[in-house]
Specification:
Helix content: over 70%
Protein name: Monovalent cation/H+ antiporter subunit A
Strand order of the largest sheet: 1-2
Shape: elongated
Strand content: under 5%
Main location: membrane
Membrane topology: Multi-pass membrane protein
Keywords: Antiport, Cell membrane, Ion transport, Membrane, Transmembrane, Transmembrane helix, Transport
InterPro entries: CPA3_Na-H_Antiporter_A, MrpA_C/MbhD, MrpA_C/MbhE, ND/Mrp_TM, Nuo/plastoQ_OxRdtase_6_NuoJ, Proton_antipo_N
Radius of gyration: 34 Å
């Protein structure tokens, strides 16, 4: 198998697995999680073969022709950054699929859940491996769609439906921003490939469009990674089953925005705007998430709010942009993915084993759930940032980046210390409160979860310690390639577990631990204080509800205004729009000159030279028009319209368009027949009495439309005929489309999708008419 096809299959394999997941469930029952986990496990093992070349700063590329006429290729790009994210997604994904098999075991729609989860995994892998920006946008939107399905999985609950709708609306706003950013970036650089942009940073930053590009890409990243003020959708997404929270909302989907910012750092970074926006919004998000986590008693909500804080910390570090800051961001990304996914899974195990997630209603579980307790301790050690964990390495590295005498760096350092202390307090609370103290009564008798529920948290906890112990290996294998890919220059690793007491960093860590312990011991009081302090602050969640309510009211008012059910008004709007579409462009482009041919013809009328039968056809049209205007009843009007249509068909026939003439004849016959049948419900002998103001209004509209058509034809006939398009059709109709009838070739080939759409509309209208007729028959 070629390398190109192998890398493409990395993104496609989860989608294929999603198709067969329900069938596997029917064939294997409760073992579906173990079987389907082979897919991400295989992807993880396949990707490990690239660790060695990436360590030596090699880049692996794969490309398949996609839209060659636009120079678009389905291209993939593996460097340190994409490989770290892909290994995280597939590795944690393996444990999540195992966990899901146990968590949703016996659920009616377990197979569907597995399909959604695997499809999301494929979308996320495609996102981080894509080199082509259009492909990246496609996978970006697929993550939004699949996360919508996962968040709203329990669609019988209104809260789940609302959370899913809110998540897809907010993230799709970012998706549109990403699409515009990709288009503007291509217009600016002429490149579709992210790898090609790495050397164009100076060009992009010097261009006048840089602020626009920056805002568009930041909008995409901020909505996806829940940065303030787009943070509110993430806590509501906790309505999803716990495996979804563990996978999407801690280790993968919400990190997509962080990945985008990291990938674009060589292109958009190193400017005052980049640094200021990322550090300010990252700081606000960090503190807001940490404080909001203290207000919660539901452990999933505590983790969700702390995830927002962690995402803000990652964005802050990317904004600082120094080598140490990017190194700290890389190490913290790995640490956060390990401990946060483990925390979410063990909270799900506690909920599964006790029937509650309320931290105030739990206690004494360490003897009833010892494996879960061990996993909680390891996750908490990493979240607090104690030695022998990857979290410790991340904290040391970020403090090293921020410990500078510059006042701005001092402010950011204080923000990082406070934010880390808040996260440490939350981690200690979740690891200690449910497991120590007296055993409290719970809805279920406390019991340890099945192997599928505890393997994931234990493995991730052990990995968080093992990677830190193997500091040199972790630095050279993970940190250096990833940070080098972000910085676009080679970065050195100086990670160490041995504190340097000659510097300030160990004391900053000790201060963080002390403040974290203080937060833990004062958690109840701080919870009450933060609730009182924030209860009157503007609420983004309520603002979203108000915006959606206003949007629905506006849509209702617009519908009542424009879709009132009066056919006469619809036709008036259509013809007024037609008149404006013809008259305004002519007036703007030609001014009064457009009236010159018309005025000359009035002053010196010239009759065209025509054959006798042509005069007869023209006379039929005039007779039909007069008959329509003076018709005394409805039947006469219908017949006069038929005369008009027949005259037009004959004109087509005389001027060499027999196919159009035939079509027109069919339309006229059907129109007369259908109108006559419909009008049998009315009295055809009556004449519609209309007020003079209606006659004047409609007559004026008709007159303007007629004059507009006449003026437009005069402008066209007096101008130079551009035959390039007709020459192209004539030259290519037979050799390319294999058709001698050029009109048919245009309809079927050159504008085939347009014709398909028209046929679909006619088919839909026919089905609607059939339904109405059948429903009326049933009523009778």
């Amino acid at each position: 198998m070629s390398l190109d096809l192998s890398i493409v299959l990395v993104a496609i394999a989860p989608f294929l697995a999603a198709l067969v997941a329900p069938m596997v469930l029917r064939g294997t029952g409760r073992h579906v999680g173990w079987i389907m986990a082979l897919v991400p496990a295989g992807i993880f093992l396949f990707l490990t073969q690239f660790i060695e070349p990436v360590m030596h700063h090699e880049v692996i590329r794969a490309s398949l022709a996609w839209v060659p006429s636009y120079n678009l290729a389905l291209s993939f790009y593996i460097d340190g950054l994409s490989l770290t994210f892909a290994l995280t997604i597939s590795g944690i994904g393996t444990l999540i699929v195992l966990y899901s098999g146990a968590y949703v075991s016996g659920h009616t729609h377990q197979g569907r859940f597995m399909s959604f989860l695997l499809a999301f995994m494929g979308a996320m892998l495609g996102l981080v491996l894509s080199d082509n920006m259009v492909a990246l946008f496609t996978f970006w939107e697929l993550t939004a769609v699949t996360s919508f399905l996962l968040i709203g999985f329990d669609h019988t609950r209104q809260a789940a439906r609302r959370a899913a709708i809110q998540a897809i609306i907010v993230t799709n706003i970012g998706g549109l921003s990403l699409l515009l950013g990709v288009i503007v970036m291509h217009q600016l650089t002429g490149e579709w490939e992210l790898s090609a942009l790495r050397g164009l940073g100076d060009t992009v930053r010097a261009d006048a469009l840089y602020p626009l590009v920056l805002i568009l890409f930041l909008g995409a990243a901020f909505t996806k990674s829940a940065q303030f003020p787009f943070h509110f959708w993430l806590p509501n997404a906790m309505e999803a089953p716990t495996p979804v929270s563990a996978f999407l909302h801690s280790a993968t989907m919400v990190q997509a925005g962080v990945y985008l910012l990291a990938r674009l750092t060589p292109v958009l970074g190193e400017t005052v705007a980049w640094t200021a926006i990322l550090t300010i919004f990252g700081s606000v998000t960090l503190l807001w998430g940490g404080i909001s986590a203290l207000r919660q008693t539901d452990m999933k909500q505590m983790l969700a709010q702390s995830t927002i804080a962690s995402l803000g910390l990652l964005v802050l570090l990317i904004g600082v942009g120094s080598e140490a800051a990017i190194s700290g961001m890389v190490v913290y990304f790995v640490a956060h993915a390990l401990y946060k996914a483990g925390f979410f899974m063990l909270v799900g195990a506690i909920d599964h084993g006790t029937g509650t997630r309320d931290i105030t209603a739990l206690g004494g579980l360490r003897t009833k759930m010892p494996l879960t307790f061990a996993a909680a301790i390891m996750a908490a050690l990493a979240m607090v940032g104690l030695p022998l964990t990857v979290g410790y390495l991340a904290k040391e590295e970020m403090y090293l980046a921020l410990a500078n005498p510059d006042w701005q760096q001092i402010v950011l350092l204080l923000v990082a210390i406070v934010g880390n202390a808040l996260l440490a307090g939350v981690g200690l609370a979740i690891a200690i409160k449910p497991f120590f103290g007296p055993l409290l009564p719970t809805p279920k008798h406390p019991h340890e979860g099945s192997p599928g529920l505890v393997i994931g948290p234990l493995v991730l906890g052990v990995l968080g310690i093992a990677m830190a112990v193997a500091t040199a290996w972790f630095g050279h294998t993970v940190l250096v390639p990833t940070a080098s890919a972000i910085m676009n220059v080679e970065v050195e690793s100086h990670l160490t577990l041995v504190p340097d007491f000659t510097g300030l960093i160990p004391f900053l860590s000790a201060l963080t631990w002390a403040l974290g312990a203080l937060v833990f011991f004062q958690l109840v009081g701080m919870r009450s204080m933060t609730r009182r302090a924030t209860q009157h602050l503007p609420n983004a969640d309520r603002a979203f509800d108000g915006l959606m309510f206003g949007l629905i009211r506006f849509a209702g008012a617009t519908t009542r205004l424009l879709h009132h059910g009066r056919l006469e008004r619809y036709l008036q709007i259509v013809f007024v729009a037609l008149a404006l579409a013809m008259v305004l462009p002519l007036a703007l482009n030609h001014g009064y000159d457009v009236l010159l041919p018309f005025s000359e013809w009035i002053a010196h009328p010239l009759l065209p030279t025509m054959m006798a039968y042509e005069w007869i056809v023209l006379g039929m049209a005039v007779v039909g028009l007069v008959a329509l205007l003076v018709a005394r009843n409805r039947l006469g009007s219908i017949l006069a319209l038929g005369v008009q249509g027949t005259s037009i068909a004959l004109i087509f026939l005389l001027f060499g368009a027999p196919d159009l003439a035939f079509t027109q004849f069919m339309v006229e016959i059907l129109s007369v027949v259908i109108l006559a049948l419909v009008m049998t419900r009315l009295n055809l002998r009556e004449r519609d009495n209309r007020p003079y103001e209606d006659i004047f209004r409609d007559g004026l509209i008709a007159l303007v439309c007629g004059v507009g058509v006449a003026l437009m034809l005069m402008v066209i006939l007096t101008g130079t005929l551009d035959t390039r398009l007709s020459d192209f059709f004539t030259a290519t109709s037979l050799p390319i489309a294999h058709g001698r009838n050029i009109v048919n070739v245009i309809l079927v080939d050159y504008r085939g999708l347009d014709t398909l759409g028209e046929i679909s509309v006619v088919m839909a209208a026919g089905i609607a008419i059939l339904v109405l007729i059948r429903s009326r028959t049933k009523e009778r």
